[in-house]
Specification:
- By secondary structure, this protein is α/β, with parallel strands linked by helices.
- It has two domains: 165 residues, Bordetella uptake gene, domain 1 (D-Maltodextrin-Binding Protein, domain 2), CATH 3.40.190.150; 97 residues, D-Maltodextrin-Binding Protein, domain 2.
- It has a five-stranded mixed β-sheet with strand order 2-1-3-10-4, with helices on both faces. Strands 7-6-8-5-9 form a five-stranded mixed β-sheet.
Length: 324
Amino acid sequence: MKSRRTILATACAAVLLGVASGAHSETYPSRPIHVVVPFPPGGLNDNVTRIIQPYLQQKLGQTIVVENKPGASGMIGTEQVVRAPADGYTLLVVASSHTVAPATNAHMKFDTEHDLAAVSLLMRDPLLFVAGEKVPAKTLKDFVALAKKDPGKLTYATPGTDSQSHFVTELFDEHAGIKMLEVPYRGGAPAVLSLISGQTDFGVMSTQLSAPQIKAGKLRPLASGGKERLAQFPDVPTLAEAGYPNLEALQWVGLLAPAKTPKDIVAKLNATLRDVLAMPEVKAKFEAQGITPASSTPDEFQALIVHEIKQWKEVAKTAGIKQH
């Protein structure tokens, strides 16, 4: 039987542990926070980060320093955060391509799933399945029929091999039972231009890139990758409505921290981000960029990351996409 002294000591230790844990969030942050964007200025990650920066700064009461660390398709900036102290003062903003990297990169110096802790999603939008106006297909069903009629003849444009667009299209090919030929470009803008000019036939594109061209009548939307129709394109069916209920295609941006960042710090950042993303002025700034703010719990975001890493590895295996 435990002595009274032992029980008392155990109880005191438990209380002290609780106090120590709570102390993290009470004192955090006490100095500037560095947010690493692993791509050059002007991209989606960077734009989202700079929209929320002043509001996050105001609510946390500390300077938020945005650092662009491009290189190696985001690997350099990401590795910097993985190696940083897990104290909440070095954070990382990533996009959907973050979960594609493990399927294509054989020389990663970190584990995408386990070396980073999910904090929250920041935005999420469906990708659009589009065709050039010269393609004689008015619906996704028509396009698939066209592709089956001439296997391997139709082409699809991507912002680059190993991009999310590349993998989503390969996944669609698998679901539809077709095979298109990839034509990679250096970025989304030239990929869209190739569709407009008729150099390529099909593409899975972000709403930011494709919406202006759809409204101008230069691209034809065949389907939207979300579970609900897009407000700006209410006549465009979802993939489920177009006959692919098990297929979803989303573009997202989210915030991560080093893996062992204390949970109370992650919780404080998550709660603050939820408040910021719900602000009308922040929503308006996102919408002006053609994107939609979206928050999540850390667990929800982590589950999305784990699911996509597994999915893209399977797509790479099925499509014969080699690691390099």
